[in-house]
Amino acid sequence: MKTLHRSNQSGLTLIEMIVTIGIIATFMTLLSFHLFALSNLWLNRTDDDFFDQHVDGVVLFLNNAFEASESTPASGDQEQQMPVEWARPPGWSEFDDPLLHFRQAEAPALFVREGRPLPAIMAYIHFEEDTGLSILWYSAFDAEEIEEVRDLKRTPVSSFVSKIEYAYYELEDDEWEITEQPIEEDDDIFLLPNYLRLTFSYPDEDDRIRSIFVPQKSLELPLF
Fold this sequence. Notes:
This is Prepilin-type N-terminal cleavage/methylation domain-containing protein. It holds the Pfam family N_methyl. The strands form four sheets. A five-stranded antiparallel beta sheet has the order 1-2-5-6-7, covered by helices on one side. The protein has a four-stranded antiparallel beta sheet with strand order 9-8-12-13, with helices on one face. The protein is 23% helix and 30% strand. It has 224 residues and is α+β, with helices and mostly antiparallel strands. It has one domain (47-72, 81-213). It is built from two helices and 13 strands, in the order H-H-E-E-E-E-E-E-E-E-E-E-E-E-E.
């Protein structure tokens, strides 16, 4: 005679299934509302937000580039070179003003060649009204091959930079002088500005003006 054994495994009852489906439906509804809210937040972001983030990114990049720049100590007939100074790129016309120039022992991630990071670079801050702010540069590997401006690499930084100015602190007069051209102190000797001032412009937005400190010999400056 066969003995019937009651199985310990039993399926969900109808009520349990209904409750489970209700919990899942509630969770999916909450998740949908959450994703909908996040998408609305993203879509409602204005050009103003993106513009400000772009401006902040450019300022941060230049600040870091200046801070990471290295100076060259005096040696023999060579004078000490400051981390940032005026210089003309190879092939630059002697009749054109020099550009702010900095050197870095290790190139930032922005500067690559054939997909590889580079060692020491020579960089020049370049501005044109139609293209904005960019960096002209070459690496230590390419130094012997650079003869003309067209041999330099060009890395765009911001097409929204509409003006570049230089802020000089007049110690004797205790005042600031803002110029769009570097100040020539003597024959082909240009004064290094205390601040680089950039104006960012974007359609239907107020201009953003930012100042970037230019490292140089110790000097106590008032707030700018």
